[in-house]
Design brief:
The chain is of the alpha/beta class. The chain has two domains: 3-163, Nitrogenase molybdenum iron protein domain (Rossmann fold); 177-288, Nitrogenase molybdenum iron protein domain (Rossmann fold, 3-Layer(aba) Sandwich). It has helices at residues 3-15, 61-70, 91-101, 114-123, 136-150, 153-174, 197-204, 222-228, 243-248, 256-260, 277-288; strands spanning 22-23, 37-39, 47-49, 56-58, 105-108, 128-130, 180-185, 207-209, 232-236, 263-266. Strands 8-7-9-10 form a four-stranded parallel sheet. Helix 3 (91-101) runs parallel beside helix 4 and helix 5 runs antiparallel to helix 6. The longest helix is centred in the middle third of the chain and has 22 residues, at 153-174. The radius of gyration is 20 Å and the shape is globular. It starts with a helix and ends in a 6-residue tail after the last helix.
Length: 294
């Protein structure tokens, strides 16, 4: 696909972010949210709420950030600063911990095992919502649906719209520039697939993740990385990866990105979905294409 066609398609995709996400009348006031509300996120079943949730348990940092960005921080009963221990639990321990908190709504990411979510729903007798989070469009859908569920629909629309506009602006700014090959190192050459939010933000910012949709768990094959030969090497700030180390490593020193010095650190928070994706995709575009938008 040509660069121009790709840019137009990406912009069109962004425009569809906040439509068709839930079953409820469009809000017309500053605080209108009639219940019951039914939405279908990334989970197995639809989520139905019959009243405004006063106690929400997020099972991941991303879920907590989304709800906080919507203005629902005071509705959280776990995931606040100093109260994130529940995120380290799994299986039966997690089910028991959620039950003790007596929530009105549980919000999880797709990484939480479906079996555990089914047990939480059954044993804690609580609705569960799973956030879509693999793309900017997914996050717009999650914002819109969570806005309906938590009674913050107006703020949800504002955030989704702001993210859409920021994404469209970045697509325009990088139009005509070559799509860069990028590798992301999250530590010890572990990486992320192309089916992730970060990879989608890379696409909007004029780059592509070189590793494909299903990289092997653990360290990425350095022999394969040599063949893929990324032009830009990104590493999360907590990965402890340095350009000096890559230049001294016989398996990486001949990579185009390493030879040219195109090594950059990124905030590990860039891998987590939240409601403020506009500044993130703009920052990635500036990092990859410093002259874009000038």
């Amino acid at each position: 696909m040509s660069r121009a066609v790709w840019a137009v398609a990406a912009a069109a995709l962004l425009l569809g972010t906040a439509t068709g996400c839930g079953e409820r009348s469009e809000p017309v006031g500053a605080h209108v949210s009639p219940y019951p509300v039914t939405v279908h996120g990334a989970g197995e079943d639809a989520t139905v709420l019959r009243a405004r949730p006063r106690r929400i348990v997020p099972l991941s940092a991303g879920a907590a950030e989304l709800i906080s960005d919507l203005g629902g921080r005071n509705q959280l009963v776990a995931g606040r600063a100093g109260s994130t221990a529940i995120w380290k639990l799994s299986g039966a321990e997690l089910v028991r911990a959620v039950s003790r908190l007596s929530p009105d709504l549980v919000v999880a990411s797709p990484s939480t095992a479906p079996l555990v979510l089914r047990r939480i729903k059954r044993e804690a007798r609580v609705p569960v919502y799973v956030t879509p989070d693999r793309s900017l469009r997914d996050v717009g859908r999650a914002l819109t649906q969570l806005g309906l569920l938590t009674d913050h629909a107006v703020q949800a629309r504002r955030l989704a719209r702001a993210n859409d506009l920021a994404g469209q602006r970045v697509v325009r700014e990088v139009r005509g520039r070559p799509v860069l090959r990028v590798f992301l190192d999250t530590g010890f050459f572990t990486t992320v697939s192309t089916r992730t939010l970060f990879s989608d933000l890379l696409r909007l910012a004029g780059a592509r993740n070189v590793v494909g949709p299903r990289p092997e768990p653990g360290p990425f094959s350095l022999r394969l990385l040599q063949r893929l030969d990324p032009q830009v090497y990104l590493a999360t700030a907590d990965s402890e990866t340095t350009l000096r180390y890559l230049r001294r490593n016989p398996s990486t020193r001949k990579l185009s990105a390493v030879r040219s010095g195109r090594f950059r650190l990124v905030d590990p928070g860039y891998l987590v979905a939240d409601g403020q994706l506009g500044p993130r995709v703009a920052a990635l575009a500036r990092l990859l294409h410093p002259d874009a938008g000038r």
